[in-house]
Amino acid sequence: MSRKRSPKTSDKSTLPTLTVVTPSLNQGQFLEEAIRSVLDQAYPYLEYVVMDGGSTDGSTDIIRKYEKHLTYWTSSRDEGQSDALMKGFSRGTGEWLAWLNADDSYLPGAFVAFADAASRAGKDTALLFGAGEVLDDQQQRRKFWPHPAHFDRAALLYGLDYIMQPATFFRRSALDSVGPLRRDYHYCMDYDLWLRLSAQFEVEVIDHPIAVSREHETTKTSLGGFRRWIEIQSMIASHAQVHLTPGLIDYLVQTLYPLTKNDSAHISPVVRRCLMLLLQENAAVARSFCSSGDWFPDGTASRGKIDDRVKEVLETHRSFFDEFEDLKRAFARAEADGLARLKTVEKLEKQLKESDVDRNARLEAVNKLEKQLQESEADRDARLNAINQLTSQLAESERDRAARLDVMQDLQRRLEESDADRAARLQIMNQLGQQIQDLSAELQKVSAELAETRKYDVRTFPVAEWYFRRRKKS
Question: How far is C-alpha 227 from the geometric centre of its chain's CA atoms?
């Protein structure tokens, strides 16, 4: 997701154009304060870019709230802070560049002070930086610089990084000249940039507090540990051409000492005492940078004095330096072993995921078979019920069949009896028919005789009467 707004420009203005980039990733609890601190500067020639790395904590809702005031914004994955910053710088056209992390903020009047310093800076000036404040977890503020800021490249190279990143502004042309931020640096890309810029260009101080840097447990500085020190050591070695400097010793002891306190049950107090003595002895070198010995340069040291003190430290800690390469190699081996174990863990995690997928597939198959078995059991019960019902119907049919057979046998017997009776009746009827025939023949004969007798005198009638009487008796 991205939005772009045309920058404000004016050919008549003597104020320098400024592109500010805020990289952020899941810093929603601080992001709005950072955005407002930029916009509240009311700088007329500002290009403001927000590069969110794909946050999931509601940061995009905050960004959309101020969308109309932004030159460009996006919320998508990137390759780290340096990558996000360089992409953000490319979205603007400002003569000067700056970046403000989402958990930091600008102080009132910061851009006015910048514009004043930039208008007075020479063409060879590439980096401007000012003082600022540090805000801790208890919401307590303290000054970052114990005295007015001062730039000394030797103090930056051999000592500590005394430049507070959110209080810096640098020319776009100078960045093009020395090259982009190192994308392979995770902790010290800003420190490296100050050294590269100061090697070719002038650096000037802004006499005004510029920004507030927030310290909390989730910052990269707090979480970096020994890995952060290794990165800083490699970066300093590439610039100073030595493997160890007083500043690196201080960084190392400051990294190790908290670890001895956290594991005090296994670390001898003598070890912690030796580390503190080394820290105190090394701190004496800081007086070559400033009179108070706090590693913040104040202009009291000459270049020759710093070089002499560095050589003195190198000689004093020669045995320590000799063992440094072994320590670095041991760490490299441990890191390689850690990477190998990490790959093994990733492989096992992959196998576990595949096993889970296969297990889920088997469970699904088992559930399917169980469902089919349940359906088969239900169908089996239905079939058994049907069989029982058919058996019952068959038994009833058998009983009905037996009854029908009994009826049929009775009917057959009765039919046989009826046939016999019929034969007897036929015989009787035949006999009766024969008798009727005989009677009919005799009647015809009598009729003939009677007809014959009519021819005679009635005096012969008694003879006929006599005949019928005799016939009746027979």
Answer: 27
